[in-house]
Automatic annotation (TrEMBL):
<dbReference type="GO" id="GO:0004641">
    <property type="term" value="F:phosphoribosylformylglycinamidine cyclo-ligase activity"/>
</dbReference>
<dbReference type="GO" id="GO:0005829">
    <property type="term" value="C:cytosol"/>
</dbReference>
<dbReference type="Pfam" id="PF00586">
    <property type="entry name" value="AIRS"/>
</dbReference>
<dbReference type="InterPro" id="IPR036676">
    <property type="entry name" value="PurM-like_C_sf"/>
</dbReference>
<keyword id="KW-0067">ATP-binding</keyword>
<protein>
    <recommendedName>
        <fullName>Phosphoribosylformylglycinamidine cyclo-ligase</fullName>
        <ecNumber>6.3.3.1</ecNumber>
    </recommendedName>
</protein>
<feature type="domain" description="PurM-like C-terminal">
    <location>
        <begin position="171"/>
        <end position="328"/>
    </location>
</feature>
<dbReference type="GO" id="GO:0006189">
    <property type="term" value="P:'de novo' IMP biosynthetic process"/>
</dbReference>
<dbReference type="InterPro" id="IPR010918">
    <property type="entry name" value="PurM-like_C_dom"/>
</dbReference>
<dbReference type="GO" id="GO:0046084">
    <property type="term" value="P:adenine biosynthetic process"/>
</dbReference>
<dbReference type="InterPro" id="IPR004733">
    <property type="entry name" value="PurM_cligase"/>
</dbReference>
<dbReference type="InterPro" id="IPR016188">
    <property type="entry name" value="PurM-like_N"/>
</dbReference>
<comment type="similarity">
    <text>Belongs to the AIR synthase family.</text>
</comment>
<dbReference type="InterPro" id="IPR036921">
    <property type="entry name" value="PurM-like_N_sf"/>
</dbReference>
<keyword id="KW-0658">Purine biosynthesis</keyword>
<dbReference type="GO" id="GO:0005524">
    <property type="term" value="F:ATP binding"/>
</dbReference>
<keyword id="KW-0436">Ligase</keyword>
Length: 331
């Protein structure tokens, strides 16, 4: 009997096909700071042009949103989600994304599917002027069923030490500005899939799965534009736990984010989920972003400039004194 790695379920040739499909596109994300391309044992990125640089890193995955992609065979946006969940976190501290690495695990590798996922990452990297400098594809029969995939990533950014945004400069009277989400982003999908069971049903003029797979919005361009024109005191990425759990992470002791939920523009799909599932409004706000992908906190004197500067930002609250709690949502 001639046992081989392929007979055990791992096809190295499919891995080589994957690399060939993505190599040219990945190299398009590289800049002069990338010292080595795909291959070898590590990737090299040179840092220059900073006085007192601080590296900021973040890692995350796509979660059970992947299940919808797997069930519908639509993988072209999942890579964007993977990048966005990592990069959107580090820009909360004013960091510019520098480079990204991805990890793709599966039961049986399909080069076409893997290439779709990585091409989504490439698209997101280009949008953020970030280099995709490495990654890993793991084919693990016995751990994953054929057709199953998991995707995670790791992003490193940079910021001058004196320009780090950490919420410590937030003061009473600061305004809370919402930057809209593109949908559920990549959070709460275990509940989403429990309520929406037919991904092919039509909703708001298109198949439901297209709405549910709308990729996580990338915020670097918007945040960068705001930072160029005004001073930001705090930024919160609204992910799992919604506004209720994420905004308090940047609010200093003795202060509280007072948010008027009546001002929040809740997407139709979230309203439909709430209605179909009989979900309490408090549970919705504690699970989903409810249409707010990013929160920016700044001095009242800067708020009008920011609202005029951005097309879709809008005010949802203010910072008040309160030693008992760090967020109040008026329902």
């Amino acid at each position: 009997m001639n046992n081989t790695y392929k007979s055990a379920g791992v096809d190295k040739e499919e891995g080589y096909r994957t690399v060939e499909k993505i190599k040219a596109a990945v190299e398009e994300t590289h800049n002069k700071n990338v010292l080595k391309g795909i291959g070898s044992f590590g990737a090299f990125y040179e840092i220059s042009g900073y006085k007192n640089p601080v590296l900021v890193s973040g890692t995350d995955g796509v979660g059970t949103k992947l299940k919808i992609a797997i069930d519908t065979g639509k993988f072209d946006t999942i890579g964007i989600d993977c990048f966005a969940m990592c990069a959107n976190d580090i820009i909360c501290h004013g960091a510019k994304p520098l480079f990204f690495l991805d990890y793709l695990a599966c039961g049986k590798l399909d080069a076409d599917v893997a290439a779709q996922i990585v091409m989504g990452i490439v698209e997101a990297c280009k949008d953020n002027q970030c280099a995709l400098i490495g990654g890993e594809t793991a084919e693990m029969p016995g751990m994953y069923k054929p057709g199953d995939y998991d995707v995670a990533g790791f992003c490193v950014g940079i910021v001058e030490k004196e320009q780090i945004i950490d919420g410590s400069k937030i003061r009473e009277g600061d305004r809370i500005i919402a930057l809209p989400s593109s949908g559920f982003h990549s959070n709460g999908y275990s509940l989403v899939r429990k309520i929406f069971t037919d991904f092919h049903e039509e909703f708001d003029g298109k198949p439901l799965y297209e709405i549910l797979l709308e990729p996580t919005k990338l915020y670097w361009r918007s945040i960068h534009q705001i930072m160029d024109e005004s001073k930001i005191n705090g930024i919160a990425h609204i992910t799992g736990g919604g506004l209720i759990e994420n905004v308090p992470r940047i609010i200093p002791d003795g202060l509280c984010a007072k948010i008027d939920t009546a001002k929040i523009r809740v997407p139709k799909i979230m309203q439909e989920l709430e209605k179909r599932g009989g979900i309490r409004r408090e549970e919705m706000f504690g699970t989903f972003n409810m249409g707010v992908g990013m929160v920016v906190v700044l001095d009242e004197s800067h708020s009008k400039k920011v609202l005029d500067l951005t097309d879709d930002a809008y005010e949802i609250g203010e910072v008040v004194k309160n030693s008992a709690e760090k967020i109040i949502l008026n329902f």
